[in-house]
Design a protein that fits this description.
The protein has about 350 residues and is of the alpha+beta class. The protein has two domains: about 220 residues, P-loop containing nucleotide triphosphate hydrolases (Rossmann fold), CATH 3.40.50.300; about 110 residues, Nucleic acid-binding proteins (OB fold (Dihydrolipoamide Acetyltransferase, E2P)). It is about 25% helix and about 35% strand. The chain contains eight helices and 20 strands. A six-stranded mixed sheet has the order 6-7-8-3-9-10, with helices on both faces. Strands 13-12-11-14-20 form a five-stranded antiparallel sheet. It has a five-stranded antiparallel sheet with strand order 15-19-16-17-18, with no helix packed on it. Bound molecules: adenosine-5'-triphosphate and magnesium ion. Adenosine-5'-triphosphate binds next to strand 2 and helix 1.
Length: about 350
Amino acid sequence: MTTVLLKGVRKDYGSFTAISHIDLDIASGELVALLGPSGCGKTTTLRMIAGLEIPTSGQICFDGKDVSEVPVQNRNVGMVFQRYALFPHMSVEKNILFGLKVRGTDRAEAEDRLEQILDVVQLQDFRHRFPAQLSGGQMQRVAIARTLITNPSVLMMDEPLANLDTKLRGEMRRFIRNLQQRLGITTIFVTHDQIEAMELADRVAVIFNGNLAQFDEPDALYKHPKSVEVADFMGATNVFAAQIKDKTATLDFGVLTFDAPSQNGTRSVMLRSEAIDLHLDEPSDAQNVFRGTIATRDFFGANITYGVSCGRETVQVTEQSRRVIDVGQDVWLTIAPERIWVIQETD
Ligand SMILES: Nc1ncnc2c1ncn2[C@@H]1O[C@H](COP(=O)(O)OP(=O)(O)OP(=O)(O)O)[C@@H](O)[C@H]1O
Ligand SMILES: [Mg+2]
């Protein structure tokens, strides 16, 4: 089991800075997702942890030892890529054994590990097939097996599910999570899909423009983003400018009382669309009540999202589709003080 530490890591390519500054402290056996838009530096970060790139400055430590200058073959890391690059002329078992062969592992030991790993990834019945005779999910499992058989102390995956369809992605996600927990292997998983990151990871590192924007547990990231940019990336729809004074927020369409820690001044307030309740009659004893009119309605199966006009703003409200409210209907909105989040941007 291995801890991974990044201290002030920076990476320049000539005059271009791909990573400005990243600190990460990954616990042994933890699954961390690197999440961010295309070009933000996820692959670069992963390649530095693997030893495929040397940081321009900063330190990378495995189990407290500085490995910044240690080449990839001496770091004992396993990499799984989006394009799994299996050898087409080799059977499943030959593909899986390949990594051990190049390392010169003893044959009996290699056979032994092959049996174990085929069980782990549930590919016993496919061992004599060739890659062209496998489904996308099975190929991905061969790619994972090929990496795991070398017993890496850190497993790294760069968008390994990007080529798979939605249903299979879901299955593979659960498969990877389950496998990772059983083996207890420290894992770093790159994705630009926030749902995937939240579903898989113990903690998520959000990277924008070569900087670490936030490193938190999925629930904290979703409910308590540290910046408007993170809130937006995590799919928040209601972020409004507000004047904060002593636990009250004055918005364009009303005054809210809240519990979250905050400083006075101009801030952004986030109201999660599912944290707001819709009422057809005026609630008598609720806090934070404001009036609006249903302006839009979007139906997504189990849920409906309404756009509710409140003054000059539109507030998005999501509820279960057990009832359907018509556009034009006057409604009241309520939100509990503990479900209001004030974004403390440090600028
Ligand atoms: N070898 C290189 N030389 C110069 N620039 C590079 C090199 N590798 C990456 N970059 C640049 O560094 C930035 C970060 O690239 P990186 O591949 O880490 O992004 P990413 O977050 O993995 O994106 P994606 O989601 O599209 O894979 C990009 O602007 C990229 O063009
Ligand atoms: Mg990438």
